[in-house]
Every structure is written in structure tokens, then in C-alpha cells.
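Hi team,

Below is the intake form for Sporulation membrane protein YtaF from Siminovitchia fordii. Please confirm the fields before the structure is written into the shared record.

FORM ID: S-0412
PROTEIN: Sporulation membrane protein YtaF
ORGANISM: Siminovitchia fordii
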Amino acid sequence: MEWFSSFLIVNLIGISANLDNTGVGIAYGLNNFRIPAWFNMIINIIGFFYTLIGVYLGSLISQIISPADIGLVSFFVFFCIGIVTICNRYSSLIYRKKHSGTKIQQPRLRDAIFLGFALSFTNIAAGIGLAVAYDTLIWELIISITLWGYISIMIGNAVGKNLISKMLGRYSSLVAGLIFIAIGLNQLL
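The structure came back. Fields below:
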């Protein structure tokens, strides 16, 4: 049963770290643009390296902090990621209302690089939390975050034209934030 718990945690973290990627895919899909595989790959290669940086920083932190405090630190990191994810969504809603006439152009290389960096900042914090809380699952979690990042953009882009996608796009950051908070609370138990 322990393998199932690990499998579930690995995938929940991978999914919740990338629900914002779904929103990006939806945004392009709503404007009838198909995100090319190379564009998606660049975004997620950047995300992979950001996660590695976070894991390295988390490993350093875990050497300094006592094992008793690791759960508390992990809770704090995941809780903060959740709150920031939720708050970023609401600030983008305010920004979007002011600039509702903005049109998305066909994806270009510099757009992929910019989106890769913008979508991957949470990967550093997630990597720190992973190294502190799940030191035995590091590579599984890094691969999960990277793969779910790619899948999330593909799914978001594919459903971007449907009515359901509008609802998912609207609440994806809230769901991602709540999942991060739930994972953080799990660290306290």
C-alpha cells in the first residue's frame, strides 16, 4: 500500500504544480492557436531545471534543519506555494479586465522561453518542499512535475475551445493552490 501512497503523492504534486500550465494551453486554445510540441517542450525543460534548483536548495536546507522541524518547514513551503498560486490568479483577473482587448499571437521561441520562466517559479519552491519532505522520491517527483507540465499544456490547449475549459481555466489556480495547501497540511500529520 505504501507504493500506492507514493504514486498518489507524486502525481498530485505533478498535477498541482502544473494546473497553471493548463490555463496557458486553454488561453491559446480559446484563440484557436495550437501549441506546437517544441513550444511545450521548451517550457517544460525550463521547468525541469527550475525544479532541480529547488531540490538542491531544499537539500541544503534539510542538512541545517533538524528532522523534527522538516515537516513544519515543508508545510510552510507548500502552504505558501498554495497561497501564492491562488493570489496570482486573482491579480491576473484584475489585470486581464484592464487589458481585455489583448490578442494572443502564434507561439514564438521567445514566448516559449518567457512562459517557461514565468510558469516555473513555483517549481523552485516545490523543489525545496520536495527535497525536505520527500527525499526518497526526488527523481520521481521531478519527472512527474515535468511530464505533467507537458500534459497539462496539451490538455488545456485541446479543450480550449469547449465551454468546460472556461470553467477549468477560471478555477485552475484555485484548485492548484488548494492541492498545494492540502499537501502542506499532510506534512503536519
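SUMMARY LINE: Residues 98-104 have pLDDT under 50 and may be disordered.

Thanks, M.
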